[in-house]
Amino acid sequence: MPAPEMIEKVEANLDAFSWTDFKTPNDLLDARLTAMKTFCKDFKAGIEQGRYISGSMPQAPFRPRTFDLALCSHFLLFYSDHLSRDFHTNCVHELLRIAPEV
C-alpha cells in the first residue's frame, strides 16, 4: 500500500488504533519506512543466507508445526476490502497449521 493511502486509512480510523507507541499517523509512517529500509538493506544477504523464503498465503511453504509462534503484521487487518473473507480465514488456518500459537 502506498504511504499516502496508508496515512489516509489510518487518519480515517484514528479511534481504531492505540497511540501509545506512536503519537501520530506520521510517527507510524516513519517507523514503517524505517522498517522497510532496514529490510531492503538486509534482503540480498538474507536471501543468500536462507533467512528469507519465498511463498504466498494462504499456503505457506512449511511443514505443519514448523514454528512455535506465527506472527502476522497488518496484512490480515488492512486488506479486507481487497481480499475475501474466505481468503483471510484460510490464512489464519494456515498460520495455525504451521504454528500452535498465532
Structure write-up:
With 102 residues, the protein is mainly α. It folds into 2 domains: 1-52, no CATH class; 53-102, no CATH class. The chain is 51% helix and 0% strand. The protein has 4 helices and no strands. It has helices spanning 3-12, 25-48, 75-78, 85-98. The longest helix has 24 residues, at 25-48. It starts with a helix and ends with a helix. The mean pLDDT is 90.
Going by helix content, strand content and strand pairing, the class is: mainly alpha
Give the overall average pLDDT.
Answer: 90
Rg = 16 Å
Portion in strands: under 5%
* Overall spatial form: globular
Number of helices: 4
Largest sheet: none
Ends distance: 24 Å
How do the helices and strands line up, and which of them pair or pack?
Elements: H1 3-12, H2 25-48, H3 75-78, H4 85-98
Core attributes:
about 100 residues; mainly alpha; 2 domains; 4 helices; about 0% strand
Write a brief structural summary.
With 102 residues, the protein is an all-alpha fold. It has 4 helices and no strands. The two termini are 24 Å apart.
